[in-house]
Amino acid sequence: MNRTSRPLSPHLLIYRWPITMTLSILHRMTGVALSAGLIALVVWLGSIAFSVGAYATVAGFMDTIIGKLMLLGWSFSFFFHLANGIRHLFWDVGMGFEMRQVNASAWFVVVATVLMTAGFWLLFYDPRSLI
Amino acid sequence: MPGSESAEGGTDHWWAQRVTAVALLILGGWFLYSIVRLDSFAYSAVLDWAGRPFNSVTLILLSLTLAWHSALGVQVVLEDYVHGPFITAVSLLLNRFAHTFLAIAAVVAILKIALGSS
Fold first, then answer.
1. Which residue of A29, A41, A88, A89 is the best one to mutate when testing the B interface, meaning the one whose CB has the most B CBs within 10 A?
2. Interface A:B, Cβ pairs < 8 A
3. Looking at this predicted complex, what is its ipTM?
4. What are B59-72's pLDDT values in tens digits?
């Protein structure tokens, strides 16, 4: 039997990965990342409550390259989850379901996330030490 | 038992996720705005900021809402990817324990800061 003579769907060679699928996966990934961020927030608050030394340790770690990359990841995750979450809330009240709107709001989320993350770091980061 | 409640509790989960989401728009926005506005991350400055009554109250609200929203979200992820009756129940229980611990730890830390007993 010639199996290739019938149409294959989706055709893998001409299949274009939709932006909406990327955003759907990212919503979940950023959500899990922010759950880890909750642990960091509690550690940070706990260190403030505990002692100067504990706070210096936590703030010192956050001032390293790895710490800053984690903060960058959490800020990106926060703004993405926020923007895409608003998109979800619109869907919840039945708005924006047309394919054109779904794709447009997807790109709006991408642009808004980049702008908010960049804006936050322009305001947040200055040469002062985190300690 | 967690995991067997979607038949009667699915709507509650859905609503709680939305209500906490809207609350976090405000509380999360406030937190990042406050962080940006902080003059310094010196210990005394952060202690003073977190200890002011309005900030303490809002930090507690943020921590509780965040823990709740996070618990609901992680629960959905676990329900989707963890299979097997025993391991599902255990993971969902651990998720609740961990989030409850985080929520109470945050409240105790903020109260300790606010009441100045450190």
1. A41
2. 80
3. 0.92
4. 999 999 999 999 99
